[in-house]
Amino acid sequence: MSHHVSDLLAADSTASELDRSLIAACVEACLRCEVACTSCASACLSEADVTAMADCIRDDLQCAELCRTTAAVLVLGGGDMAVSRAIADACRQACERCAVSCEAHGDHHEHCRLCAQACRACAEACAALVA
Question: Which tens digits make up the pLDDT trace of 43-62?
Answer without folding.
Answer: 999 999 999 999 999 999 99
